[in-house]
Structures are given as C-alpha cells and as structure tokens.
Amino acid sequence: MAAPSNRPLIERAAALLKPHKTADGRVFGDVAAAVVSETGRIFDGVCVDTASWGLCAERSAIAAMVTAGEYRIASVVAVWRDATTGKLHVLPPCGHCRQFMRDLDDANLATTIVLGSDMVRTLAELLPEHAWPAAIE
Ligand SMILES: [Zn+2]
Predict the structure, then answer these.
(1) Taking the chain, what is the end-to-end CA distance rounded to the nearest angstrom?
(2) How far does Cα 22 stand from its chain's mean position?
(3) Which residue segment(s) compose the domain that 118 sits in?
(4) How far is the CA of 28 from the centre of ligand 1 (A)?
(5) In angstroms, what is the span from residue 99 Cα to ligand 1's centroid?
(6) Would you state the pLDDT for residue 96?
(7) Around ion ligand 1, which residues have CB less than 5 A away?
(8) How far apart are CA 33 and CA 78, in angstroms?
(9) Closest CA to 56 of 7, 108, 96, 8
(10) DSSP classification of residue 104
(11) For 51-91, what is each residue's pLDDT tens digit?
(12) Is 28 inside a domain boundary?
C-alpha cells in the first residue's frame, strides 16, 4: 500500500500563494505554509519579508497556531511557485524555522516535515546534533 500523499496539504498551502510586490521591490506572500497541529487543526501562513525583518511562512503559520494555544506540530509544508515556469516547489524549512519548531516544544522533533509529494523527514532528521551537549570536562 502506498504511503498517503502529501498533495492535499501541499495544495492547501499553494492556494495561499498571493505574491505582493512592494514599492521597494520586496515580495510578500510568495511562500506559503500549512501547519497541522497535534490536534489536527490546520494553520496557514505566508512569508512577510520586510526591510526591517523577515518572517518565513512556516513561522507565520506557527504563530497562528500558538495564538490558538497550540504548541505541538504534527506536520508542516511550505511551497513557492516559480513565476517564470509556473511550477510549484516544496521548500525545506530554513535553519531558523527548524530551531524555532524545536524550541517551541521538544515533542516537535517528531514533526513530519513535508519535502515533496511523497517525501517526508522528521524535524530531528533535519536538525541533527540538537541536544544540549554534555560537559567536556
Ligand atoms: Zn524559515
């Protein structure tokens, strides 16, 4: 039996894509994320990349989840559509987002990170050597 496809969650995130170009040439909303909490609720977010601060789509969606009082993430996906080719890409979370998810709750090390239609990894796999180290002496 084939593993369940990630396509429904990918398509949900893709539906959020609404790139908005600012006067200074920045683009908001060209990356979108969908986060499934441990209770099964889905939270959406888009990237907001300003000159003063950049917020990834994943952290935007996770902030909505935290606002709703949830901290454990079952799965997460982020997508971007190439405006030139029209093709949709699933993006791996950046290092900041990986650490953010881990810091939110240790249980998130088991979070399923969607990396493609049929490809996933756990956060722990994407964040090796995350444990506080033992003393060296
Ligand atoms: Zn990020």
Answers:
(1) 51
(2) 23
(3) 7-126
(4) 14
(5) 9
(6) 95
(7) 56, 94, 97
(8) 4
(9) 96
(10) H
(11) 888 999 999 999 999 999 999 999 999 999 999 999 999 99
(12) yes
Cα-to-chain-centroid distance, residue 105:
15
Which residues 6+ apart lie within 8 Å of 53 measured at CB?
none
With respect to residue 136, please indicate whether it lies within any of the assigned structural domains: no
Q: Ligand 1 centre from 121 Cα, in Å?
A: 16
CA–centroid distance, 51 to ligand 1, in Å, is: 16
* Residue 120 lies inside a defined structural domain of this protein: yes
Per-residue pLDDT at 1 exceeds 80: no
Note whether residue 2 is domain-resident: no
What domain count does the chain have?
1
93-to-3, 41, 135 alpha-carbon distances in Å: 22, 20, 30
Domain with 69 in it: what CATH number? 3.40.140.10
